[in-house]
Amino acid sequence: MNLRKSFYTASFVAALVGLPATAMAAGFQNSSQSATAAAMGSGAAGNPNEPNASFYNPASMGLSEGLKVYIGDTILLPRSSYEPAGGGEKVSTEDRLFPPPHAHLSYDNIADSGVSAGVGLTFAYGLGITWPDDWVGRTSIQSQDLQTVNINPNVAYRIPGLDLSVAAGAQIVHGSVTLKKSVAIGPDQFVDAHIGGTGFGFGGVAAVMYQPLKELTIGLQYRSRVKLDLEGDAHFEGEENTPFYTTFRDNPGSTEITLPDTIALGFGYQLDKLFLHAEVDYTMWRTYDKIVLTLDTDGDPDALAQLPPIEGNWDDAFAFRVGAQYDVTDAFAVRLGGNYDMTPIPDETVNPSLPGNDRISGSVGVGYSYESFRADAAYSIVHALPREIANGRGPSGTYSTDANIFALSLGYGF
Question: 412, exposed or middle or buried, with CB in 10 Å at 0-12, 13-18, 19+?
Fold first, then answer.
Protein backbone atom coordinates (compact mmCIF):
# COMPACT_ATOMS: atom_id res chain seq x y z
CA MET A 1 0.00 0.00 0.00
CA ASN A 2 2.74 2.49 0.86
CA LEU A 3 4.60 1.66 -2.32
CA ARG A 4 1.45 2.14 -4.37
CA LYS A 5 0.80 5.50 -2.72
CA SER A 6 4.40 6.50 -3.32
CA PHE A 7 4.21 5.54 -6.95
CA TYR A 8 0.99 7.36 -7.71
CA THR A 9 2.01 10.47 -5.81
CA ALA A 10 5.45 10.69 -7.41
CA SER A 11 4.58 9.44 -10.87
CA PHE A 12 0.93 9.72 -11.84
CA VAL A 13 0.18 13.15 -10.40
CA ALA A 14 3.61 14.56 -11.18
CA ALA A 15 3.13 13.40 -14.74
CA LEU A 16 -0.12 15.28 -15.06
CA VAL A 17 1.38 18.35 -13.43
CA GLY A 18 4.00 18.38 -16.16
CA LEU A 19 1.33 17.88 -18.78
CA PRO A 20 1.90 21.12 -20.75
CA ALA A 21 4.14 20.39 -23.70
CA THR A 22 6.82 22.39 -25.43
CA ALA A 23 5.01 25.11 -27.37
CA MET A 24 6.10 28.08 -29.41
CA ALA A 25 4.97 30.87 -27.12
CA ALA A 26 5.55 31.31 -23.43
CA GLY A 27 3.78 28.69 -21.38
CA PHE A 28 2.17 26.24 -23.79
CA GLN A 29 0.44 28.56 -26.24
CA ASN A 30 0.62 28.38 -30.01
CA SER A 31 -0.04 31.91 -31.25
CA SER A 32 0.74 31.19 -34.93
CA GLN A 33 -2.75 30.59 -36.32
CA SER A 34 -2.35 32.06 -39.81
CA ALA A 35 0.57 32.55 -42.15
CA THR A 36 -0.24 36.26 -42.36
CA ALA A 37 -0.05 36.84 -38.60
CA ALA A 38 2.87 34.41 -38.16
CA ALA A 39 4.98 36.59 -40.47
CA MET A 40 4.10 39.69 -38.43
CA GLY A 41 5.05 38.57 -34.93
CA SER A 42 1.97 36.36 -34.44
CA GLY A 43 -0.17 39.33 -33.53
CA ALA A 44 -3.26 40.68 -35.32
CA ALA A 45 -5.70 42.04 -32.74
CA GLY A 46 -5.54 45.46 -34.43
CA ASN A 47 -5.26 44.29 -38.04
CA PRO A 48 -8.61 44.77 -39.88
CA ASN A 49 -7.31 42.72 -42.80
CA GLU A 50 -6.18 39.64 -40.84
CA PRO A 51 -7.78 36.67 -42.65
CA ASN A 52 -8.14 34.45 -39.55
CA ALA A 53 -10.50 36.83 -37.80
CA SER A 54 -12.02 34.05 -35.67
CA PHE A 55 -8.81 33.66 -33.67
CA TYR A 56 -7.19 37.10 -33.59
CA ASN A 57 -10.19 39.46 -33.45
CA PRO A 58 -13.67 38.42 -34.63
CA ALA A 59 -14.84 42.06 -34.49
CA SER A 60 -12.86 42.68 -37.69
CA MET A 61 -15.60 40.74 -39.52
CA GLY A 62 -17.83 43.76 -38.99
CA LEU A 63 -15.50 45.93 -41.08
CA SER A 64 -15.55 43.55 -44.05
CA GLU A 65 -17.97 42.27 -46.71
CA GLY A 66 -18.96 38.90 -48.16
CA LEU A 67 -17.83 35.30 -47.89
CA LYS A 68 -14.41 34.57 -46.37
CA VAL A 69 -12.65 31.19 -46.27
CA TYR A 70 -9.14 30.75 -44.89
CA ILE A 71 -7.40 27.43 -44.17
CA GLY A 72 -3.82 26.45 -43.54
CA ASP A 73 -1.26 24.62 -41.51
CA THR A 74 1.66 25.51 -39.26
CA ILE A 75 4.65 23.18 -39.15
CA LEU A 76 6.50 23.33 -35.81
CA LEU A 77 9.96 21.83 -35.38
CA PRO A 78 11.07 22.31 -31.74
CA ARG A 79 14.12 20.98 -29.93
CA SER A 80 15.14 21.20 -26.28
CA SER A 81 18.48 20.24 -24.76
CA TYR A 82 19.93 19.61 -21.31
CA GLU A 83 23.46 20.15 -20.00
CA PRO A 84 24.21 18.65 -16.53
CA ALA A 85 25.07 21.09 -13.77
CA GLY A 86 28.32 19.27 -12.91
CA GLY A 87 29.38 18.86 -16.52
CA GLY A 88 28.80 15.95 -18.82
CA GLU A 89 27.33 15.02 -22.14
CA LYS A 90 24.61 17.23 -23.60
CA VAL A 91 21.25 15.51 -24.13
CA SER A 92 18.71 16.67 -26.74
CA THR A 93 15.08 15.80 -27.29
CA GLU A 94 14.15 13.72 -30.30
CA ASP A 95 13.30 15.59 -33.49
CA ARG A 96 9.55 15.75 -33.99
CA LEU A 97 7.23 17.57 -36.38
CA PHE A 98 3.91 19.03 -35.26
CA PRO A 99 1.38 20.21 -37.89
CA PRO A 100 -1.51 22.00 -36.14
CA PRO A 101 -4.01 23.29 -38.76
CA HIS A 102 -6.14 26.43 -38.66
CA ALA A 103 -9.34 27.47 -40.41
CA HIS A 104 -11.75 30.41 -40.60
CA LEU A 105 -15.12 30.67 -42.36
CA SER A 106 -17.38 33.71 -42.24
CA TYR A 107 -19.98 35.73 -44.08
CA ASP A 108 -19.52 39.40 -43.31
CA ASN A 109 -22.26 42.04 -43.39
CA ILE A 110 -25.07 39.62 -44.12
CA ALA A 111 -27.71 41.25 -46.39
CA ASP A 112 -26.25 44.69 -45.56
CA SER A 113 -27.49 44.27 -41.99
CA GLY A 114 -24.16 45.03 -40.32
CA VAL A 115 -24.23 41.52 -38.83
CA SER A 116 -21.42 39.05 -39.58
CA ALA A 117 -21.12 35.43 -38.51
CA GLY A 118 -18.14 33.10 -38.59
CA VAL A 119 -16.51 30.05 -37.10
CA GLY A 120 -12.88 29.11 -36.60
CA LEU A 121 -10.88 26.01 -35.79
CA THR A 122 -7.50 26.29 -34.06
CA PHE A 123 -5.03 24.31 -31.96
CA ALA A 124 -4.04 27.16 -29.67
CA TYR A 125 -2.52 25.15 -26.78
CA GLY A 126 -0.31 22.10 -26.96
CA LEU A 127 2.46 20.27 -28.78
CA GLY A 128 4.88 17.80 -27.22
CA ILE A 129 8.33 16.75 -26.08
CA THR A 130 10.24 13.45 -26.25
CA TRP A 131 13.47 12.83 -24.33
CA PRO A 132 15.61 9.73 -25.02
CA ASP A 133 14.32 6.60 -23.27
CA ASP A 134 17.54 6.17 -21.29
CA TRP A 135 18.21 9.79 -20.34
CA VAL A 136 19.01 10.63 -16.70
CA GLY A 137 15.63 12.29 -16.17
CA ARG A 138 13.48 9.40 -17.33
CA THR A 139 11.76 9.23 -13.93
CA SER A 140 10.72 12.88 -14.39
CA ILE A 141 9.57 12.69 -18.01
CA GLN A 142 10.20 10.64 -21.13
CA SER A 143 7.55 11.96 -23.50
CA GLN A 144 4.26 13.78 -23.50
CA ASP A 145 1.75 15.26 -25.90
CA LEU A 146 -1.03 17.77 -25.29
CA GLN A 147 -3.56 18.79 -27.91
CA THR A 148 -6.48 21.19 -27.61
CA VAL A 149 -8.90 21.63 -30.50
CA ASN A 150 -10.89 24.87 -30.28
CA ILE A 151 -14.07 25.34 -32.33
CA ASN A 152 -14.89 29.03 -32.09
CA PRO A 153 -18.22 30.39 -33.48
CA ASN A 154 -18.56 34.20 -33.43
CA VAL A 155 -21.05 36.94 -34.31
CA ALA A 156 -20.04 40.55 -35.04
CA TYR A 157 -22.09 43.72 -35.44
CA ARG A 158 -21.01 47.02 -36.95
CA ILE A 159 -22.69 49.90 -35.12
CA PRO A 160 -24.45 52.20 -37.63
CA GLY A 161 -22.79 55.56 -38.17
CA LEU A 162 -19.59 54.48 -36.46
CA ASP A 163 -16.46 52.72 -37.65
CA LEU A 164 -16.87 50.45 -34.65
CA SER A 165 -17.55 46.72 -34.60
CA VAL A 166 -18.28 44.53 -31.59
CA ALA A 167 -18.22 40.72 -31.44
CA ALA A 168 -19.01 37.86 -29.12
CA GLY A 169 -18.46 34.14 -29.43
CA ALA A 170 -17.97 30.79 -27.79
CA GLN A 171 -15.07 28.39 -27.34
CA ILE A 172 -15.72 24.66 -27.54
CA VAL A 173 -12.48 22.92 -26.61
CA HIS A 174 -11.53 19.25 -26.71
CA GLY A 175 -8.30 18.36 -24.94
CA SER A 176 -6.22 15.19 -24.96
CA VAL A 177 -3.02 14.27 -23.18
CA THR A 178 -0.66 11.30 -23.31
CA LEU A 179 2.45 10.88 -21.22
CA LYS A 180 5.18 8.31 -20.67
CA LYS A 181 7.69 8.15 -17.81
CA SER A 182 9.57 5.55 -15.79
CA VAL A 183 9.37 4.50 -12.16
CA ALA A 184 12.51 3.09 -10.53
CA ILE A 185 11.81 -0.11 -8.55
CA GLY A 186 15.48 -1.12 -8.11
CA PRO A 187 18.97 -0.53 -9.48
CA ASP A 188 18.62 -0.29 -13.26
CA GLN A 189 15.09 -1.68 -13.03
CA PHE A 190 12.13 0.42 -14.16
CA VAL A 191 8.43 0.20 -14.78
CA ASP A 192 7.12 2.31 -17.68
CA ALA A 193 3.95 4.27 -16.98
CA HIS A 194 1.72 5.32 -19.89
CA ILE A 195 -0.92 7.90 -18.96
CA GLY A 196 -3.64 9.33 -21.18
CA GLY A 197 -6.86 11.28 -20.87
CA THR A 198 -9.38 13.35 -22.83
CA GLY A 199 -12.08 15.87 -22.01
CA PHE A 200 -14.12 18.93 -23.03
CA GLY A 201 -14.36 22.51 -21.83
CA PHE A 202 -16.26 25.67 -22.77
CA GLY A 203 -15.55 29.38 -22.72
CA GLY A 204 -16.39 32.72 -24.31
CA VAL A 205 -14.93 35.47 -26.51
CA ALA A 206 -15.57 39.23 -26.62
CA ALA A 207 -13.91 41.71 -28.97
CA VAL A 208 -14.09 45.23 -30.41
CA MET A 209 -12.42 46.93 -33.36
CA TYR A 210 -12.48 50.69 -33.91
CA GLN A 211 -11.21 52.93 -36.70
CA PRO A 212 -11.12 56.48 -35.29
CA LEU A 213 -9.11 57.52 -38.37
CA LYS A 214 -8.97 56.04 -41.84
CA GLU A 215 -5.35 55.06 -41.23
CA LEU A 216 -5.65 53.92 -37.59
CA THR A 217 -7.26 50.78 -36.21
CA ILE A 218 -7.53 49.77 -32.56
CA GLY A 219 -8.54 46.24 -31.60
CA LEU A 220 -9.19 44.55 -28.28
CA GLN A 221 -10.01 40.88 -27.69
CA TYR A 222 -10.74 38.86 -24.56
CA ARG A 223 -10.80 35.05 -24.57
CA SER A 224 -12.02 33.49 -21.35
CA ARG A 225 -10.47 30.65 -19.39
CA VAL A 226 -11.59 27.13 -20.25
CA LYS A 227 -11.73 24.34 -17.69
CA LEU A 228 -11.00 20.92 -19.18
CA ASP A 229 -12.43 17.94 -17.31
CA LEU A 230 -10.05 15.10 -18.21
CA GLU A 231 -10.71 11.40 -17.74
CA GLY A 232 -8.29 8.65 -18.67
CA ASP A 233 -6.24 5.63 -17.67
CA ALA A 234 -2.80 4.62 -16.46
CA HIS A 235 -1.14 1.60 -18.07
CA PHE A 236 2.11 -0.04 -16.89
CA GLU A 237 4.76 -2.13 -18.64
CA GLY A 238 7.72 -3.97 -17.18
CA GLU A 239 6.15 -4.99 -13.88
CA GLU A 240 4.96 -8.45 -15.00
CA ASN A 241 7.90 -10.46 -13.64
CA THR A 242 8.55 -8.42 -10.52
CA PRO A 243 7.18 -8.55 -6.95
CA PHE A 244 5.30 -5.33 -7.74
CA TYR A 245 2.92 -6.86 -10.27
CA THR A 246 -0.18 -6.21 -8.15
CA THR A 247 0.99 -2.72 -7.20
CA PHE A 248 1.31 -1.39 -10.73
CA ARG A 249 -2.15 -2.24 -11.96
CA ASP A 250 -4.02 -0.25 -14.58
CA ASN A 251 -6.32 2.32 -13.00
CA PRO A 252 -8.65 5.05 -14.31
CA GLY A 253 -8.46 8.60 -12.99
CA SER A 254 -9.74 12.12 -13.57
CA THR A 255 -8.50 15.66 -13.09
CA GLU A 256 -9.07 19.27 -14.21
CA ILE A 257 -6.84 21.61 -16.22
CA THR A 258 -7.81 25.27 -16.68
CA LEU A 259 -6.58 27.07 -19.79
CA PRO A 260 -5.92 30.76 -19.12
CA ASP A 261 -7.83 33.96 -19.88
CA THR A 262 -6.11 36.10 -22.52
CA ILE A 263 -6.37 39.77 -23.43
CA ALA A 264 -4.89 41.20 -26.65
CA LEU A 265 -4.69 44.92 -27.44
CA GLY A 266 -3.49 45.80 -30.94
CA PHE A 267 -2.87 48.97 -32.95
CA GLY A 268 -2.68 49.06 -36.75
CA TYR A 269 -1.59 51.99 -38.91
CA GLN A 270 -1.76 52.19 -42.71
CA LEU A 271 0.81 54.50 -44.29
CA ASP A 272 0.35 54.34 -48.04
CA LYS A 273 1.65 50.87 -49.01
CA LEU A 274 3.05 50.12 -45.55
CA PHE A 275 0.95 48.66 -42.72
CA LEU A 276 2.37 48.63 -39.20
CA HIS A 277 1.03 46.63 -36.27
CA ALA A 278 1.90 46.54 -32.57
CA GLU A 279 0.26 44.39 -29.91
CA VAL A 280 0.43 43.68 -26.20
CA ASP A 281 -0.95 40.37 -24.91
CA TYR A 282 -1.68 39.48 -21.31
CA THR A 283 -2.19 35.82 -20.40
CA MET A 284 -3.60 34.96 -16.97
CA TRP A 285 -1.53 31.84 -16.33
CA ARG A 286 -2.48 32.05 -12.65
CA THR A 287 -5.24 29.56 -13.59
CA TYR A 288 -2.48 26.94 -13.78
CA ASP A 289 -1.98 26.81 -10.03
CA LYS A 290 -2.46 23.21 -8.90
CA ILE A 291 -3.79 19.86 -10.03
CA VAL A 292 -5.68 17.31 -7.96
CA LEU A 293 -6.11 13.80 -9.30
CA THR A 294 -9.02 11.59 -8.23
CA LEU A 295 -8.61 7.83 -8.73
CA ASP A 296 -11.33 5.28 -9.38
CA THR A 297 -10.60 2.68 -6.70
CA ASP A 298 -13.40 0.30 -7.80
CA GLY A 299 -14.42 -0.15 -4.18
CA ASP A 300 -10.96 -1.10 -2.89
CA PRO A 301 -10.84 0.31 0.70
CA ASP A 302 -7.03 0.22 0.71
CA ALA A 303 -6.60 2.18 -2.51
CA LEU A 304 -5.91 5.90 -2.52
CA ALA A 305 -9.04 7.72 -3.68
CA GLN A 306 -7.57 11.21 -3.99
CA LEU A 307 -4.05 12.55 -4.09
CA PRO A 308 -2.86 15.82 -2.53
CA PRO A 309 -2.63 18.80 -4.88
CA ILE A 310 0.61 19.42 -6.73
CA GLU A 311 1.52 23.07 -7.08
CA GLY A 312 2.21 24.78 -10.41
CA ASN A 313 1.81 28.37 -9.19
CA TRP A 314 2.39 29.96 -12.60
CA ASP A 315 2.40 33.74 -12.93
CA ASP A 316 0.53 35.96 -15.38
CA ALA A 317 2.70 37.02 -18.30
CA PHE A 318 2.94 39.67 -21.03
CA ALA A 319 3.89 39.24 -24.69
CA PHE A 320 4.91 42.08 -27.02
CA ARG A 321 4.47 41.72 -30.79
CA VAL A 322 5.34 43.97 -33.74
CA GLY A 323 4.88 43.45 -37.46
CA ALA A 324 4.87 45.18 -40.81
CA GLN A 325 3.48 44.51 -44.28
CA TYR A 326 4.60 46.28 -47.44
CA ASP A 327 2.56 45.97 -50.64
CA VAL A 328 5.17 45.69 -53.38
CA THR A 329 2.36 45.48 -55.94
CA ASP A 330 -1.40 45.16 -55.70
CA ALA A 331 -0.95 41.36 -55.75
CA PHE A 332 2.31 40.79 -53.85
CA ALA A 333 3.16 41.71 -50.25
CA VAL A 334 6.17 41.11 -48.01
CA ARG A 335 5.97 40.87 -44.22
CA LEU A 336 8.32 41.11 -41.25
CA GLY A 337 7.79 40.71 -37.51
CA GLY A 338 9.09 39.81 -34.08
CA ASN A 339 7.92 39.20 -30.54
CA TYR A 340 9.04 38.81 -26.97
CA ASP A 341 7.10 36.37 -24.75
CA MET A 342 7.66 36.44 -20.99
CA THR A 343 7.64 33.09 -19.23
CA PRO A 344 4.97 32.43 -16.59
CA ILE A 345 6.89 29.53 -14.99
CA PRO A 346 8.56 30.31 -11.63
CA ASP A 347 11.89 28.80 -10.60
CA GLU A 348 10.17 26.73 -7.90
CA THR A 349 8.09 24.66 -10.35
CA VAL A 350 9.95 24.66 -13.70
CA ASN A 351 10.70 21.10 -14.84
CA PRO A 352 11.99 19.13 -17.88
CA SER A 353 8.49 18.61 -19.27
CA LEU A 354 8.44 22.34 -20.09
CA PRO A 355 11.86 23.92 -19.43
CA GLY A 356 10.55 27.26 -20.61
CA ASN A 357 11.92 30.75 -20.29
CA ASP A 358 11.40 34.14 -21.92
CA ARG A 359 11.27 33.68 -25.70
CA ILE A 360 12.42 35.87 -28.58
CA SER A 361 11.37 35.27 -32.16
CA GLY A 362 11.73 36.80 -35.59
CA SER A 363 9.63 36.13 -38.68
CA VAL A 364 9.35 36.86 -42.40
CA GLY A 365 6.67 36.08 -44.95
CA VAL A 366 5.04 36.81 -48.27
CA GLY A 367 1.51 37.00 -49.60
CA TYR A 368 0.11 36.75 -53.12
CA SER A 369 -3.44 37.41 -54.28
CA TYR A 370 -5.25 36.81 -57.56
CA GLU A 371 -8.79 38.05 -57.92
CA SER A 372 -10.61 36.57 -54.87
CA PHE A 373 -7.90 34.04 -54.03
CA ARG A 374 -4.87 34.47 -51.80
CA ALA A 375 -1.88 32.47 -50.58
CA ASP A 376 0.36 33.35 -47.63
CA ALA A 377 3.59 31.80 -46.36
CA ALA A 378 5.74 32.54 -43.31
CA TYR A 379 8.85 31.40 -41.48
CA SER A 380 9.70 32.08 -37.83
CA ILE A 381 12.64 31.19 -35.63
CA VAL A 382 12.07 31.01 -31.87
CA HIS A 383 14.77 31.09 -29.21
CA ALA A 384 14.08 30.55 -25.51
CA LEU A 385 16.66 31.98 -23.16
CA PRO A 386 18.59 29.21 -21.30
CA ARG A 387 16.92 28.09 -18.07
CA GLU A 388 18.60 26.54 -15.05
CA ILE A 389 16.67 23.94 -13.07
CA ALA A 390 17.85 23.29 -9.52
CA ASN A 391 14.59 22.67 -7.65
CA GLY A 392 14.57 18.87 -7.45
CA ARG A 393 11.83 18.51 -10.10
CA GLY A 394 14.24 17.07 -12.62
CA PRO A 395 17.95 16.67 -13.30
CA SER A 396 19.81 19.82 -12.27
CA GLY A 397 21.37 21.70 -15.13
CA THR A 398 20.79 24.16 -17.94
CA TYR A 399 17.94 23.67 -20.40
CA SER A 400 17.42 25.45 -23.71
CA THR A 401 14.75 25.39 -26.41
CA ASP A 402 14.70 26.53 -30.04
CA ALA A 403 12.24 26.01 -32.87
CA ASN A 404 11.67 26.58 -36.55
CA ILE A 405 8.12 27.35 -37.65
CA PHE A 406 6.72 27.25 -41.18
CA ALA A 407 3.18 28.35 -42.05
CA LEU A 408 1.13 28.18 -45.24
CA SER A 409 -2.45 29.43 -45.63
CA LEU A 410 -4.87 29.70 -48.54
CA GLY A 411 -7.90 31.97 -48.72
CA TYR A 412 -10.91 32.91 -50.80
CA GLY A 413 -13.01 36.06 -50.77
CA PHE A 414 -10.41 38.55 -49.57
Answer: middle
